[in-house]
């Protein structure tokens, strides 16, 4: 297609070649196709990335809870492929950005240099700067800012758009972060455990409340006694969970200690005035810090808190109340010890419900030392202490990816069937699923946590019971056997109240059997070392909180492990299928979307600008500028080849002016070739005529001369 400017001969007539040609003014649609191609790579991956910040493509959620349907490993792989595809398209868009924008601007420069209204002006230096694609030339852009002969709005806008296209990818890479995430697939849900061997799964067993109510106390009390015999406040407790839910030991306080699985974290620091005295802990059958990963389960938890106070001796019940209370006593010439645990210690206080349950229990301890019996002054303490324990049993949600790896609070009510089916992976026990007949233990069930603690501390085969039934003779082996038995709290707890610990008393007997004089005197010293922590209300609370925790832990773990085959609920943990996902950040979405909006608006505007008006050439390339150069005479001020002239871009004048616009001369081919020839627009550099749409050639020429 002809692309030259129709020119005149020196005498004002059309050149022979021009007279035979057709107008090169035509509509050019190439920029539309180029823009659509580029916008696909620019916009589509960002839209997909924004979608993937909230959910996978073609899926409802990353959580894949039971109500959303099961994902396969192929689904997870597809999610990763979408992410890989967006990254590939982002790379293509980054590579295409500057070439595409430069091409669109080059096409826009052609229309921009055509005279479309009588009031427009464009200097010849500005025309040359656009032909040089100065928006991509940093020195030329810098010079254009200070030189009006070179600067044009299109040039400055092009430079700004190029800058946006250049900085958008690095800004996006800084703001848009990716994180690994786990997807629960069919291989992770519990039903598949028996079909395939899945190495991603771990398993625990959680007791049913109905089993807790039937668990024999003959199994629990010995475990509590052994636990208390080995317990110190600095031992790590594997089944101790912190009520705040911050299981990693970090708290929003000045002191952030990783020791919240130890009793001293709650006792010693509280006594020293740290802000943890209000923190509480509870026991579960699932080890502390357990996470279920991509799965979502509830587990039983049991918690007891003790409150003690010293009361007058007259407040001690004359008759221990209840249907089957527990009582214990030691009466001799040196001291009197009485223990009362009211209520029913022969049955469980828990019912077969998954809703929250709470109970309250009492314990009375009375100690009187004969003032005529000469013990150390520090041991001559008479006291009566009343303690109340409030215990709760219920469910909490285990840490998982769904709750930020933070255990949930104690639930008031168990979720309904619809909620469990849609949002959790909890299963009932096999017995409940298949209506297997239930045969309960025929032995005495375990009572409440405080009553269990009292039985472990003062009941049969306890340290108190051994002293109570010891033969008071010169046989020192009896004393040593007592100290080698289940001595509760052998270390430190007594010393917290300012008294010698049980281990110190037993060490004295082992080192020198005659240390306390007679054996009965040694026995009484052991008894005093055992009971004296209850003289201090705060220390008594610590003792009973530790004892009730041991009772809760023993009940939950024993029942869960004993019923694992049929009576306990199965809990699973799985890491799931690992993929990457973009991090949801509103600031990143806003900033990157704003930059992309600028690019999209500019590309669309340039495409519409280029396609909506006829131009005489596609771009101001070398051939087009050579034709423009034919009309620049010697008066334009351009120096000869090989000579650098500072006036080259400054003093260009055509026909006595500095105009760089392409306009229509007041001539037409009809005046030269006869009235029968169709009019042909005669274009010229600096010509005053306005180019209008009807001058365009709407039919392609049969023999194109150039691709310009």
From TrEMBL:
This is Uncharacterized protein. It comes from Staphylotrichum tortipilum. Keywords: Membrane, Transmembrane, Transmembrane helix. It comes from the Eukaryota. The keyword Transmembrane helix applies. The chain crosses the membrane at residues 32-54, 586-609.
């Amino acid at each position: 297609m002809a692309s030259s400017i129709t020119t005149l001969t020196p005498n004002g007539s059309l050149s022979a070649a021009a007279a035979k040609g057709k107008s090169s003014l035509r509509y050019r649609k190439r920029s539309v196709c180029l823009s659509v191609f580029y916008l696909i790579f620019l916009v589509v991956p960002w839209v997909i990335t924004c979608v993937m910040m909230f959910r996978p493509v073609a899926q409802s959620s990353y959580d894949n809870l039971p109500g959303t349907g099961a994902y396969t490993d192929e689904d997870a792989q597809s999610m990763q492929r979408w992410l890989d595809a967006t990254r590939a398209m982002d790379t293509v868009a980054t590579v295409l950005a500057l070439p595409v924008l430069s091409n669109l601007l080059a096409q826009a420069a052609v229309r921009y240099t055509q005279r479309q209204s009588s009031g427009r002006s464009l200097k010849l230096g500005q025309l040359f700067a656009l032909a040089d694609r100065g928006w991509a030339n940093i020195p030329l852009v810098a010079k254009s800012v200070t030189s009006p002969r070179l600067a044009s709005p299109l040039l400055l806008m092009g430079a700004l758009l190029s800058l946006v296209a250049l900085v958008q990818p690095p800004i996006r890479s800084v703001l848009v972060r990716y994180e690994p995430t786990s997807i629960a697939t069919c291989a992770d849900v519990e039903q598949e455990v028996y079909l395939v061997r899945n190495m991603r799964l771990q398993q625990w067993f959680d007791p049913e409340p109905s089993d807790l109510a039937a668990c024999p106390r003959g199994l629990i009390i010995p475990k509590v006694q052994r636990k208390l015999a080995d317990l110190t406040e600095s031992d790590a407790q594997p089944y101790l969970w912190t009520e705040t839910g911050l299981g990693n030991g970090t708290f929003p306080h000045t002191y952030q200690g990783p020791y919240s699985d130890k009793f001293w974290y709650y006792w010693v620091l509280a006594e020293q005035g740290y802000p943890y005295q209000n923190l509480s802990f509870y026991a579960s059958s699932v080890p502390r810090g357990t996470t279920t990963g991509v799965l979502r389960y509830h587990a039983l938890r049991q918690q007891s808190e003790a409150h003690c106070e010293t009361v007058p001796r007259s407040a001690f019940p004359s008759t221990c109340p209840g249907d089957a209370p527990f009582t214990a006593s030691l009466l001799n010439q040196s001291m009197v010890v009485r223990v009362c645990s009211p209520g029913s210690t022969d049955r469980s206080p828990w019912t077969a419900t998954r809703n929250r349950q709470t109970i309250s229990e009492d314990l009375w301890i009375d100690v009187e030392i004969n003032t005529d019996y000469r013990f150390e002054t520090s041991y001559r303490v008479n006291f009566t202490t009343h303690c109340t324990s409030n215990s709760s049993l219920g469910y909490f949600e285990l840490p998982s990816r769904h709750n930020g790896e933070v255990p949930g609070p104690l639930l008031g009510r168990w979720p309904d069937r619809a909620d469990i089916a849609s949002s959790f992976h909890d299963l009932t026990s096999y017995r409940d699923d298949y209506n297997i007949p239930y045969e309960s233990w025929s032995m005495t069930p375990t009572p409440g946590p405080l009553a269990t603690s009292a039985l472990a501390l003062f009941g049969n085969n306890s340290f108190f019971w051994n002293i109570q039934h010891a033969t008071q003779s010169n046989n020192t082996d009896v004393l040593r056997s007592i100290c080698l038995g289940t001595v509760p709290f052998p270390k430190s707890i007594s010393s917290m109240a300012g008294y010698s610990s049980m281990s110190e008393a037993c060490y004295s007997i082992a080192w020198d059997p005659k240390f306390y004089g007679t054996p009965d005197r040694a026995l009484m010293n052991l008894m005093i070392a055992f009971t004296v922590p209850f003289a201090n209300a705060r220390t008594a609370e610590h003792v009973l909180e530790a004892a009730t925790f041991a009772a809760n832990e023993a009940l939950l773990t024993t029942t869960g492990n004993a019923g694992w085959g049929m009576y306990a609920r199965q809990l699973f943990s799985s890491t799931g299928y690992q993929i990457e996902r973009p991090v949801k950040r509103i600031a990143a979405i806003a900033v990157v979307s704003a930059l992309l909006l600028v690019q999209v608006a500019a590309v669309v505007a340039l495409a519409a600008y280029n396609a909506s008006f006829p131009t005489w050439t596609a771009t101001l390339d070398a051939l087009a500028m050579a034709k423009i150069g034919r009309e620049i005479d010697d008066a334009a001020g351009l120096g000869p080849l090989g000579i650098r002239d500072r006036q080259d871009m400054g003093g260009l004048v055509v026909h006595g002016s500095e105009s760089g616009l392409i306009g229509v001369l007041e001539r037409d081919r009809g005046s030269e070739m006869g009235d029968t020839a169709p009019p042909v627009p005669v274009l010229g550099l600096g010509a005053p005529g306005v180019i209008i749409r009807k001058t365009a050639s709407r039919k392609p020429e049969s023999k194109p001369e150039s691709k310009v």
